Amino acid sequence: MSIVETIKRDVTATLTRDPAARNRLEVVLLYPGFHAVLIHRVSHVLWERGLRLPARVLSALAFRFTQVDIHPGATIGPGFFIDHASGVVIGETSVVGHDVTLYHQVTLGGRGDQTGKRHPNIGDRVVIGSGAKVLGAITIGADSRIGANAVVVRDCPPNSVVVGVPGQVVSTPPSYARLPSVARAGLDMPDAIGEGLKSLIERVDEIESSMEEITQMHSSSHPIRPNSEGFWSFDDFSI
Fold first, then answer.
1. Mean pLDDT, each 10-residue run in order, the chain (239 residues)
2. What total number of domains does the chain contain?
3. Which end of the chain is more exposed for a tag (fewer CB within 10 A), N or C?
4. Nearest of 183, 17, 6, 15 to residue 77 by alpha carbon
């Protein structure tokens, strides 16, 4: 795919996934996320051709005007969409697949002072929520969803839903695989706290039901008290 075709697909991705985008001209003129990606496309070509300084100058200019820091060495597939743009960081050895969506303040970064491959690989159609950090030379499988503010430091299989610090895979439902439309991708994130409360309430209901059964069992038997002579029955102490 040529760079022109890739840029056209980026415009389409923005127009498709952002309900506020009304037409292509608006995307091209007014969307800083698209501007950052557009400049990266050019700087990456320069980087691949060995023109490292001009590539870094372009990426620095893009950061100054869009608040998006994409290293020109990063490889990003077509259909890439950054929503709201501000604070996004993508490291040099990151590899991003097709039709990926990032929200603001996402970091695809390294850990410590490693050299060589030190940034993540992001599979096709992955959605990464605002504030999430994906760190190290790990792989996020295709069609996965990374929750807002998650910190992911381990590989995740395809179709995963990842939340928390550190990031934990909370489900891998088949329904997430190969979404028919990326327009609503990422809107089906699970409510981990809500699910936990639901499980707790169900457990309390089970305990209350058990207590009711025990109460009814004892009420149907003889009263637990000493007889008229003051003696207790052995059955009163049975378990």
1. 87 89 90 93 94 95 93 95 92 94 94 86 94 94 92 91 86 51 48 68 82 68 62 54
2. 2
3. C
4. 6
